[in-house]
Specification:
With 191 residues, the chain is of the alpha/beta class. The protein has one domain: Rossmann fold (3-Layer(aba) Sandwich), CATH 3.40.50. The protein is built from eight helices and eight strands. The strands form two sheets. A six-stranded parallel beta sheet has the order 5-4-3-6-7-8, sandwiched between helices. Helix 1 packs antiparallel against helix 8 and helix 5 packs parallel to helix 6. It is globular. The two termini are 29 Å apart.
Amino acid sequence: MVNCQNGEMMLQRLDADQCVFLIIDLQERVLPVQFESDRVASNIARFIRGANYFKIPVFIIEQNPDKLGNTPSLVVEQAKEPIYIEKNTISCLKNNEFLELLTGMGRKQLILSGSETQICVQKTALDAMDAGYEVFVLGDGVTSRTEKNIDMGLNRVAQAGGVIESTEGALFEFVLKSDDADFKQVLKIIK
């Protein structure tokens, strides 16, 4: 599907050279009350291994970590050189430090994960699209307190023009052929 945004045509295809991966507010003190949070953290860790391989910058963004805790070590340990941002804004794009770093990278595709899907992930996605970024959300890499909130947040992003993708689907989008090193590496990551 081709989407038109800010007068520009978007092919909605991931390009590793244009991507940035965001882990939004996946924090230890909140995870126990969130839907299937262990599976979500595992999928995010898996995607980080792929991001490392394809040289995609990884942002770990935390909302008031003194109160909500930090990102779980299972996730953090996977990132080679994560960029940490502490925020108190709902949308990551309303955080000046994040926005300056992102703008400086010159990349135009954001892959989002984390929590709460219908709050911080959704607002970040909507603000990013308004700013001209192509937005992809890992549907199996987001969580909320209820499954319904996850579905509603993903639907809202999709209605606005974002792409909902699976962890495996996103990783394989970076692969061209089934007989090259990229294919073999992605297979290792998803197993």
